[in-house]
Amino acid sequence: MTGIIPSQHLRSMIDRGEIAATPGITPEQIQPASLDLRLGTVAYRVRASFLAGDGRTVEDRLKEFEMHRIDLTEGAVLEKGCVYVVPLMERLNLPGAVQAVANAKSSTGRLDLLTRAIADGGTEFDRIPSGYQGPLYAEICPRSFSVLVRPGMRLNQIRFRAGRARLSDKELRELHNRTPLVNGHPVIEDGMGFSVDLKPGDGDIVGYRAKPHTGVIDLDLIDHYDPADFWDAVRTRKERIILDPGAFYILVSQEAVTIPPDHAAEMAPYVAMVGEFRVHYAGFFDPGFGHDAAGGAGSRGVLEVRCHEAPFVLEHGQVVGRLVYERMMAEPETLYGAGIASNYQGQGLKLAKHFKAGGA
């Protein structure tokens, strides 16, 4: 069997000890096509981001780059602009045919909280080779806001796959013809392209820009913070905005996206050199995201955008990213939005769940 491993098979992997944790994995961690990873009890402030490298362990590299250790037991602040490595509670003992890929959870990305998984012997972030046996770590770099974290918090998630799962462009077109994946004309080239919406239906707000000097965000507090304390509204009636170098923006895709129950997807940067900006990885799209049967009726993708060295004009309808679709090994027992705590089903332009509804 090939494809992304669904929730019911993840439980079997846990039962066999292929995925383990101390303390044990909870039902809330198991998503339709992924497993949430939990922070451990200590954070290492390091001088620089690093990979373990072939034949080396993360623990060995920490001895080279550690500056000091922070006990997270009672909660601790991870400062904006600093790099931390946190051992995770989960560890893997993967079969030879199963590999894994990690990604930040949606709310993590919307806070501009760069979170990547690293592993012993790793030569890439967020990529765990087949047959891997060992611990997992999260590298965390808060980029816009300092955050308060505690053990057990779930900032990133991991997917497991066996064999070839990714759809070719031909397969993607065939799937779209059977089950429309986006509204409007699909742009299919190395995945499903999506564009930015800078033409507001009501008013003139098209996005949000992170303020440079704010307070700390406690990641346990949901629907708590006033968006105006952390974000400036981005407004336009000209169907374009100018991105400022170094600034972080929350925008939204023009397309409403659907993920069928027997597929999953991942948001990836657009491969073409389209300008002085980058659309950040925005996590995984679970089976059922935007799907009618799961209460979605099409959900737009939130875009996490950072401008690079020069100001850049971003225009309505400009292609800025792509969705890579993958087939599931089997349809998961529960779909995104159907009976689980899904914060972003049916979404439009929306900040992270920590902020009160209503915008900045």
Q: How much helix, percentage-wise, in residues?
A: under 10%
Order of helices and strands: EHEEEHEEEEHEEEEEHEEEEEEEEEEEEE
As a whole number of angstroms, the C-alpha radius of gyration is 20 Å
Largest sheet: 6 strands, antiparallel
Distance between the termini: 47 Å
What is the molecular shape? globular
Instruction: Round the mean pLDDT to the nearest integer and report it.
Output: 90
Q: Structural class given helices, strands, pairing?
A: mainly beta
Number of β-strand runs: 26
The number of helices is: 4
Beta-strand level of the residues, as a percent range?
35-45%
pLDDT below 50 for ≥5 consecutive residues: which ranges? 340-346
Quick rundown:
This protein is mainly beta and 360 residues long. The protein contains four helices and 26 strands.
Overview of the structural elements:
- With 360 residues, the chain is mainly beta.
- Helix content is 9%, strand content 38%.
- The chain contains four helices and 26 strands.
- The strands form six sheets. Strands 2, 4, 5, 7, 9 and 11 form a six-stranded antiparallel β-sheet that branches. Strands 1, 3, 8, 10 and 13 form a five-stranded antiparallel β-sheet that branches.
- Strand 14 (187-188) and strand 15 form a beta hairpin.
- The protein is globular.
- Residues 340-346 have low confidence and may be disordered.
Features:
360 residues; mainly beta; six-stranded antiparallel sheet; five-stranded antiparallel sheet; 38% strand; globular
